[in-house]
Write a structure and sequence with these properties.
The protein has 308 residues and is mainly α. It has helices at 3-12, 14-26, 28-65, 75-90, 95-110, 116-158, 169-184, 214-221, 266-279, 287-299; strands spanning 188-190, 193-195, 242-247, 254-259. It has a two-stranded antiparallel sheet with strand order 1-2. A two-stranded antiparallel ribbon has the order 3-4. A hairpin with a 6-residue loop joins β3 (242-247) and β4.
Length: 308
């Protein structure tokens, strides 16, 4: 049922619905029912999704810095600890070392620059400091970039919470990787928050001309594979047998056949997938036909199904 259908139903039945809503909102049993329902919905639907978001953040952090969060530590505590380490590194540019080198220069000036020993000592110290400084700056730059990418990945992951898809998870992960990569370099951190920008440096806006949220981003990029509301009274919506989608971009673009159920055996899969390919204009037994069929066979684990 769509939102408009709900509104139309409420409008047509105001006389019956108003007392029911009053009872739920104003009586103790009604309030208790609403509270119990909200708590149950949170435990069943929201809490697992929150847990998945934090799990994805932990995995992203591990991927970036190669260090896994201890089981007895909260994610935000672990991130604060890593940020403190980054701050310490940024402050460790050894200003005292610069003063020491300046003092050596002054000593050489007083000696008239005729001491080979002190010249050599100075040159070695300067060379060593230049190397150390470059190592610090490189490591600091890498950490800052890793921290930025981790923050952007975490931001994007929050937008996937609550979305359901009509294709296998493998296909969703492939699309997620492609679109995450496409925006990773252009996104910016402004006032500590992720702000999405396109490759030309323009801020990305949603359909209401407001800054695009992570949810807006995924609903736009994954709209072809997001599960549509079922308004047919059960089963998949009519005509939604599947589709051929494209993952990757440019030279890495690859076509994938997505079959939305309708089979429980190998033979049924061949019939359903074959009809879908024919509807899409793919020539039977062509190279494209075989590649799409083989990919869908693997994605749907048809090898585990009985023949008949």
């Amino acid at each position: 049922m769509t939102l408009q259908e709900v509104l139309d139903f409420v409008k047509a039945n105001q006389g019956e619905i108003k007392p029911l809503l009053q009872n739920l909102q104003e009586t103790e049993p009604g309030k208790e029912f609403l509270t119990d329902h909200a708590n149950a919905h949170f435990e069943k639907e929201i809490k697992p999704r929150i847990a998945k978001v934090y799990s994805d953040i932990d995995n992203d952090v591990f991927e970036v810095i190669g260090e896994r969060k201890p089981d007895d530590k909260k994610t935000y505590e672990f991130l604060k600890e890593k940020m403190r380490e980054l701050k310490t590194l940024k402050e460790s540019k050894e200003p005292n070392k610069v003063k020491e080198l300046e003092a050596q220069i002054e000593a050489l000036k007083k000696e008239g620059g005729n001491s080979d020993y002190w010249k050599k000592t100075h040159e070695e110290a300067v060379s060593k400091w230049d190397t150390t400084k470059q190592e610090y700056e490189t490591k600091l730059s890498n950490l800052e970039n890793q921290q930025k990418q981790g923050q952007i990945r975490s931001f994007l992951d929050t937008g996937l919470s609550g979305l359901e898809f009509s294709v296998p998870q493998e296909a969703v992960d492939a699309l997620k990787q492609v679109h995450s990569t496409s925006v990773m370099d252009s996104a910016k951190i402004i006032d500590g928050k992720v702000v999405l920008h396109d490759k030309d440096g323009n801020q990305m806006l949603n359909s209401h001309y407001k800054p695009m949220t992570a949810e807006d981003f995924w609903k736009d990029k994954l709209q072809s594979v997001i599960k549509k509301p079922n308004t047919g009274g059960g089963g998949a919506p009519a005509g939604n047998k599947g589709d051929i989608i494209t993952t990757g971009e440019g030279e890495n673009a690859k076509s994938k056949l997505v079959v939305n159920g309708g089979f429980t055996t190998k033979r049924q899969f061949q019939d359903v997938a074959g009809k879908l390919l024919i509807e899409k204009g793919i020539e039977r037994n062509s190279k494209e036909w075989n590649e799409l069929m083989d990919g869908a066979y693997k994605d749907n684990e048809v090898s585990k199904m009985p023949i008949e």
